[in-house]
Amino acid sequence: MDSSQFRQAAHAAIDQIIDYYDNIRDRRVLSEVQPGYLRELIPPGIPQTGEKWEDIQRDIEAKIMPGLTHWQSPNFLAFFPANSSYPGILGDMYSGAFTCAAFNWQCSPAVTELETIVLDNVGRLVHLPEEFLSAGEGGGVIQGTASEAIAVVVVAARDRYLAQSKATWAAEGLSEDEIEEKVCTLRGKLVALGSDQAHSSTKKAAMIAGVRCETIETAMGEYKLTGEQLTAKIADLQARGLVPFYLTATLGTTPTCATDDFPSLSAALAAHHASTPLKIWTHIDAAYAGAALVLPEFAHLPATFAFADSFNFNMHKWLLTNFDCSCLYVRRRRDLTDALSITPAYLRNEYSDSGLVTDYRDWQIPLGRRFRSLKAWFVTRSYGADGLIAHVRKSMDCGKEFTKLVKGDAKRYTLVAEPAYALNVVRVNPPPELEIPVDSDGGKEFRKRSNEVTRKVAERINREGKIFITSTVLGKGDESVTAIRVVGGAPRVQVSDLQNAYRVISEAVDAVWAEEVAAETARAKEQVELQAV
Amino acid sequence: MDSSQFRQAAHAAIDQIIDYYDNIRDRRVLSEVQPGYLRELIPPGIPQTGEKWEDIQRDIEAKIMPGLTHWQSPNFLAFFPANSSYPGILGDMYSGAFTCAAFNWQCSPAVTELETIVLDNVGRLVHLPEEFLSAGEGGGVIQGTASEAIAVVVVAARDRYLAQSKATWAAEGLSEDEIEEKVCTLRGKLVALGSDQAHSSTKKAAMIAGVRCETIETAMGEYKLTGEQLTAKIADLQARGLVPFYLTATLGTTPTCATDDFPSLSAALAAHHASTPLKIWTHIDAAYAGAALVLPEFAHLPATFAFADSFNFNMHKWLLTNFDCSCLYVRRRRDLTDALSITPAYLRNEYSDSGLVTDYRDWQIPLGRRFRSLKAWFVTRSYGADGLIAHVRKSMDCGKEFTKLVKGDAKRYTLVAEPAYALNVVRVNPPPELEIPVDSDGGKEFRKRSNEVTRKVAERINREGKIFITSTVLGKGDESVTAIRVVGGAPRVQVSDLQNAYRVISEAVDAVWAEEVAAETARAKEQVELQAV
């Protein structure tokens, strides 16, 4: 593909992308292909001679599009959003054009320096405490995902805890051999912590780092971790000879967007740290909800997690920057580089050695990196603070409209958590015709029927494919509650889309209710006939 | 930015990218900015209201370009190449447009299915044994970088070794508590291995996984790991109570593109495994040189590493696919998912549960993933097998031309390793005028002077910035050799570029030699004058 062929191909690709976005509402949001669909459409192997772009491009609509779930559709109300935007796409075009491994400053100074500048800007935009910015001992870095960020901080937390332990033992006069022996034993006892609502990536990070992971149960209906629960867990671990070294606290949990009680967690950690030089690393996971910190009404929140060692949110979720752009901030960058830096001869240069430059490879797991700050720079400049605030505000308005609708429809729905950050989590009531009492049997039968109906409604909605939602299970065993999560954060989402979603869901509820009542009537009839025999 | 503004902006961006590529030879390949240059050019903060694309785009040439090192320039002869291409850029445009977190099959089936198909195709293109493809128990997955791939396999190797150990102890009738105690001790003794020429990412992977790492010394001038050396190292570790569980073997080392002796390594491992059910995981790191396996003359090589557990090469180095596209193949995909799978309720769906689909999140560290197979698909279809072969062949021809030139110039240069995969590693001889004997003093003085001259030549070349090369240090202490690495693999590189590089380097040699001789003459004169006093 020469330059003029590329110009033609790229123009055609841009037309296709624009058409895709302009008409995305008309596409079935959820793909309905069956596993293995693509193998049947694509001839095996690589062609011997090159193909024309027209032939390649034709396959995008014909073969790829049917297998896509359209995350940019306003009817995508599942998981959390994964925003893309035109300025973001432009950023990745240049990133591709300027391709370089960028593992140190010298590889392309602009890649490192723009990242530092952009992350400081974004940190201020979300009102982060100054400690997390680059002027002092902290700073920000772009990671691929929040889960990758958590893997990084768990490894750093583990190594910091081991280093602090070694220092303590050395001060006590232990020999190197004795210290090594004790480190070995300690590794086996280290425990990473998160609440039962924290994202599973903490568990995965612990698996990668080779340490244990335990969860702390939160209260049903609250779903937020408190200092009291943490203190109790620490005591429990200590009683079992185990050693907590890391905690994921969450701003906006995945199931319900609950926020842990940062002030009481801060106090609990301060009390714990009063008696030991061995510090538990606290990471604030705000992967999705962190974007809401651009709003003035949330500007006070970051001060409440100033005690944390690290903070992370994904611009690629709710802040109009196409995947991947996960912003990780640390209070002390040395904590990362102590755990992740190796500097072999062929990566050495006068700039790195001077300490004047940041080598982000020492802040992350991979060596090489893309020029990801370009897209974040384009997005923040192209939208401006006002544009980014307007986008998040619009989603919040969508969420509030949906809350209003379900609150006004107590016959069909019960909110199972306080709506937060544009997310509503609702369960569907059993059909009123069945007259299942809410409170008898401790609500067990009601919950069971509600869970069944909610699951059937969720499956029906996704089978229809007019909107895409996910369901979640809160609590355990008899107490567990199945609920539908509805969150509209796509770039083009409007309040009317959530009104439509309410209609689609309600139609599904009515259909499932009718089936349930019919089944119950048939069962009752059968019962009567059996008794008559 | 609305659709019509995007069309205009994207057309302007495409024109700029085409102009950048068409005239890249004219740009100074190595950036000459000083640390902190960008802070002075960019006003702090995010603008309150959005800016026009024209204003943003203007800053690319004015502010970003000066801080770029141009990896696509034919004058970029440093590190290893990091190819970009037009079809690759188109792939990332669509990947951005279709942005989705893609952490499981259902998120967008096309993302998963195309990756499996493309990696099978690419695996066949580089003549991988069938065991590494998806039809059996193995398969390929796109990772961000070779270092990330190595982190993944080290974690998987560690967990496989621990699982095999646990199974052995359970079979011996040990209790759960006893087994846990022994696992804890074993973790502290596990050692990941690589030769002294293996990439530093093995060391970093071991740091992340929380295990030891040791290197095995190779012979000077050979730089390849042999079975004999591995066997000796295993015996040494066992004598010290340590336990090897993982080995990085390399096809094309970073310093000299040496290739480990796979047949003898295979035999050594087979001998070791004959007496134990606990398997050492061997990973073949072919990050750069793997691309050369598209050439028919190397098609026999992959059969020699059929014994390995995993293999990795980067399409984003030498195969025209913009970063990131690192292809990792494993013999047994269960080894990865056993180590990396967690499946919480909100990530469950009927397709994942059925086992019919691949959820690549369980093959990697991060949860979310981009649609990276698109660019690999576009590149392989657009170039065809012939186009990819022609690209690698052209680089090989460049390398051979450079080899011919330095071999014909024994006055200036000595090749310090067998040229391989387009890489030449040369040291510069001391000025002939100084008449330093090559062999006296075991060659110590000659090496010392050669190293000094080589370092000065390398620094001078990169200061001039007509071409960009990296230097490397082989061996240790008195024996160490400083050498210049020259490898031309950029998409537009021609044999004439390497002829030019030879001229540029030779001019630098002559200039440094003249300085050295002048300094030596001045020193001698001073000596004479001092003696005269």
UniProtKB/TrEMBL annotation, chains A, B:
Cofactor(s) essential for the protein: pyridoxal 5'-phosphate
Pfam family membership, one: Pyridoxal_deC
Biological-process GO terms, alphabetical: amino acid metabolic process; carboxylic acid metabolic process
Membrane spanning residue stretches: none
Record InterPro entries: Aromatic_deC, PyrdxlP-dep_de-COase, PyrdxlP-dep_Trfase, PyrdxlP-dep_Trfase_major, PyrdxlP-dep_Trfase_small, Pyridoxal-P_BS
UniProt key word Repressor: no
Cellular compartments per GO CC: cytoplasm
Residues found modified as N6-(pyridoxal phosphate)lysine: K317
Key words, A-Z: Decarboxylase, Lyase, Pyridoxal phosphate
Keyword Lyase tagged: yes
One term of GO molecular function: pyridoxal phosphate binding
Family membership noted in the UniProt record: Belongs to the group II decarboxylase family.
Name of the protein in question: Aromatic-L-amino-acid decarboxylase
Organism expressing this protein natively: Orbilia brochopaga
